[in-house]
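Researcher: Let's do a round of design. I'm pasting the structure tokens now; please hold your answer until I've finished.
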């Protein structure tokens, strides 16, 4: 379906309608109805989802299932203060932010300033790491804080709702057009960290629990994505973080590495 939508003239005509926020809102209304429970069984089978991890086995709607919470302990965060953790279940690629603040995702170039529409903040992360966590529909769609610290208020940037599937990336600058939310955080162990949540096709809502300025704790749930594939981008300043192997070598070869919510993906740089 995605190939037809993004790869044919007729499909791109339809796409102009369905990437609009109102379409995602209509889709969101439908998947919150009881009738949408009919889709759960097939979705679980096709994506090999283990429901034994879930707090409950019966759901009110497809979205209730999709945003399901797992049993305590199913995604325990690594609490070593020198370890940098993944905020979510995802496929991770790590990029150096060069002097031009550009990085490449699926053969498409983006600037950090375009993502957050703030050149001053983007400049502070030059030379550091950009960690791109791509969630697919079979992943757990809740995410956590990567460290203890002071989080500043969320900044929301409205946009269209393209899919984050690589098919779409061939034709559209997805991460510039999609709805997204970013926040800065002064962490205890890794300096200033920038976190960006990016919505996708049929994701009508990025639900962060603490949109206002507050103090947060490593491993605590930050928020959730409603139905669809989504992406989290985490930026760390220069000289702070060393990325673990094989993530670093895989990323250099443009290969994603599967990671889990709360798992270690790097360590604090020894010179710090």
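Researcher: That's everything. Go ahead.
Model: Designed sequence:
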């Amino acid at each position: 379906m995605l190939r037809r939508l993004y790869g044919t003239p007729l499909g791109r005509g339809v796409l102009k309608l369905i990437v609009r926020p109102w379409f995602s809102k209509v889709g969101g209304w439908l998947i919150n109805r009881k009738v949408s429970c009919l889709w759960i069984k097939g979705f679980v089978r096709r994506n090999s989802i283990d429901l034994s991890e879930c707090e409950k086995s019966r759901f009110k709607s497809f979205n209730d299932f999709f945003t399901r919470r797992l049993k305590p302990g199913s995604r325990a965060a690594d609490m070593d203060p020198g370890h940098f953790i993944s905020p979510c279940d995802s496929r991770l690629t790590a990029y150096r932010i060069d002097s031009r603040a550009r990085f490449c995702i699926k053969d498409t170039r983006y600037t950090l300033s375009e993502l957050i529409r703030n050149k001053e903040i983007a400049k502070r992360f030059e030379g550091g790491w950009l960690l791109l966590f791509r969630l697919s529909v079979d992943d757990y769609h809740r995410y956590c804080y990567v460290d203890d610290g002071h989080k500043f208020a969320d900044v929301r940037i409205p946009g269209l709702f393209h899919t984050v599937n690589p098919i779409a990336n061939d034709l559209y600058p997805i991460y510039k057009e999609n709805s997204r939310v970013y926040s800065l955080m002064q962490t205890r162990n890794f300096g200033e960290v920038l976190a960006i949540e990016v919505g996708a096709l049929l994701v009508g809502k990025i639900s962060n629990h603490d949109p206002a300025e507050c103090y947060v704790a490593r491993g605590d749930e930050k928020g959730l994505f409603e139905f669809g594939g989504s992406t989290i981008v985490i930026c760390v300043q220069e000289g702070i973080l060393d990325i673990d192997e094989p993530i670093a070598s895989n990323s250099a070869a443009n290969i994603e590495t599967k990671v889990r919510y709360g798992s270690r993906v790097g360590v604090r740089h020894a010179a710090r």
